[in-house]
Design a protein that fits this description.
mainly alpha, elongated, ABCG_transporters, membrane, ABC-2 type transporter transmembrane domain-containing protein, transmembrane helix
């Protein structure tokens, strides 16, 4: 592996994170706000609780915004030439699922707390720009100035990219695989100020993002519905 080849693979990993994010988030922002008038009317008519609707929506989005991303991941995995041991593919599947669910939860949250679709989309653009810029590819997260560096800790781009990079460079297939070791892995990760021992933490933080975003979205939607009459 050359330095250029390593850079290409890292760029492809970040592209996967970005594609998993934008497709699901804007898909949700396009569809979900249209439900609001119906939810308000049927809630105040006593047909169902806000929580029932919210939970049903979440469960309906999980397969819808998971299968497409996993299909893209598997196609990219072998077309790009990522390391493809069984363990690495399984972990990549878990990471991709968490990234897509993080972006889905963020999209649900934005749609639920925003008073209209145009405002939700207007908020999504700048927020995603900040989160992606601090995701690790465009700037080394260890060299960001203090007034910007805190944003990385709110970015699933950063945790998803770091987890995919750790997984990719854990072992490498191909002619140079016998020469690969943890020292070379750490050298590659240090280019972004990533650390291999953060793998589990990255996964847990994305789970926390999912739960946190959904919780904020629920309280935001409930408040809007309760105050609508």
């Amino acid at each position: 592996l050359t330095r250029v080849g390593i850079g290409n693979l890292n760029g492809a990993l970040f592209y996967i994170v970005s594609e998993l994010t934008y497709s699901s988030l804007f898909g949700i922002l396009t569809c979900l706000p249209g439900d609001y008038p119906l939810v308000v009317r049927e809630y105040h008519d006593g047909i169902y609780y806000v929580f029932s609707y919210y939970l049903a929506r979440i469960f309906s989005y999980i397969p819808l915004f998971s299968l497409d991303g996993l299909l893209m991941l598997y196609v990219c995995y072998w077309m790009v030439g990522f390391s493809s041991s069984v363990t690495q593919v399984i972990f990549a599947t878990i990471i991709a699922f968490l990234v897509e669910q993080s972006s889905s939860a963020f999209g649900v949250m934005l749609a639920c707390i925003s008073p209209s679709y145009p405002i939700a989309v207007a908020l999504a653009g700048p927020l995603l720009t900040l989160l992606s810029l601090t995701g690790g590819l465009f700037a080394n997260v260890g060299t960001l100035p203090p007034y910007v560096s805190w944003i990385q800790y709110l970015s699933w781009f950063r945790y998803g990219f770091e987890a995919l990079a750790i997984n990719q460079w854990q072992e490498v297939n191909g002619v140079n695989s016998t020469d690969w070791n943890t020292q070379r892995r750490d050298e590659v990760l240090s280019m972004f100020s990533f650390r291999a021992d953060r793998f589990v933490i990255d996964l847990l933080l994305m789970v926390a993002f999912i739960l946190g975003f959904y919780a904020i979205g629920y309280f935001g939607l409930s408040l809007r519905v309760f105050k609508s009459r």
